[in-house]
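BUG-464 | component: ligand-complex export | severity: low

The export step for uridine-5'-diphosphate jobs runs without errors, but we want the raw record kept on the ticket for reference. Input record follows.
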Amino acid sequence: MSQLTSATPKKEVGGHVVVVPYPSQGHINPLLQFAKRLASKGIKATIATTHYTVSSICAPQVGVEPISDGFDQGGFAEAKREDLYIESFKSNGSKTLSQVIKKYLDTSNPVSCIVYDSFLPWALDVAKQHGLYGASFFTNSATICNIFCRIHHGLLTLPVNIEDMPLLVPGLPPLNFHDLPTFVRFPQSNPAYLAMKLNQYSNLDKADWIFDNTFEELEGEEARSVSQQWPGKLIGPMVPSAYLDGRIKGDKGYGSSLWKPLSGECIEWLETKPEKSVVYISFGSMVSLTAEQMEELAQGFKESNLHFLWVVRASQLDQLPKWFTDSTKEKGLIVSWCNQLEVLEHKAIGCFVTHCGWNSTLEGLSLGVPMVGVPQWADQLTDAKYIEEIWEVGVRAKEDDKGIVRKEEIIKCLKQVMEGERSQEIKKNAIKWKKSAKKAVSEGGSSDKNIDEFVNSLMSSKDN
Ligand code: UDP
């Protein structure tokens, strides 16, 4: 048992965890939040992220180290191809992560554990080469983990047949074809991403811990029914503490932004709007909508005659119809990026039109905001099913045969969530889930207990 001297800072009693996210906004956010949560419990936490994203990190509670994906100037955009990027990150990332571990070897707090994004299974190999603990962190729902884990273990075979729907998967509700992740519906659509999703399980038997950003009440059954192959501990929602338990002082944002948020402008504008009158629209950091889809959405927002705050990333501005901005000046604000949590928390927000990325879904649930799901690809389709049918905190906009959500559908969905018959029920459920998310991460909650268990094992292994 090591003796702590009075000079030993409390923050350094529990070993040293290096956290390695996949370098996109939807992955950096939850992993950085986990690092901050560990730091708040006395563990030294360092985030190791790519040269291209390292300057976006602003979280004084955690250390920061750059590693290389081989595209130090432009990241994924420089690589352009998924397979090339994934391979390059593996070879360059393994080397540079090793260097980070070596850098701390002769310090008072050498690295004891690597918490890595499940998209980066090579980081577990690096941890094991150095004799360290390794913990895999899944950033998507337990439902999605369940599905891909079964495919990896041959318990579910691809391609699934549309005639065999609904798909019956233990622990999950019956899934129709349009509820399935894109890579399951159309395995050939993106072989590199499908391979990455399956690779998450390739060496998982060597991991000392598996974490998932979800919580017991939300998805306990979905996780348990695959726990033999995937014994994941549910530790979410990884949303800044100020919006949930409030135990981490001043924790109002994730501490990373790949684009500059127009926070002041959004809040100033929202302040002038009546309570629960504004529709907030965001498709996250990756989705690109076609001009046709943008036109339909624009028409729908205009004709619904509601106030709206729409995040249109700079790369998407060209697709926004020319007539739109001028003719909706009175009703709407368009920004290139915002602080989504600050917006969702604002009393003027009445509904969240979302692409159903997992972080956005958890944020909507945690802040109790009713949602209109307009999922585009990957896991978003399955998340949308849960939003509408299982948690009943919103509705899902239906696409036509061309895969486009038409303006009439948008108007109908907004009505249902903002003022329709179902809106009262949806609002009630949204508040119920908000309370349950808060309980999970508060002291003694299911997620908090799982995090404490991890922290205690790290602390005791350091002491022994
Ligand atoms: N986000 C933000 N500002 C915006 C739009 C999105 O801060 O204007 C954040 C949002 O809060 C979430 C993340 O970006 O944490 C997006 O992650 P998500 O999983 O929802 O979608 P992805 O971008 O991975 O598709």
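Assignee comment: Attached the raw record above. Residues 24-26, 29, 282, 284-287, 311, 337-341, 357-360, 363 surround uridine-5'-diphosphate (CB under 6 Å).
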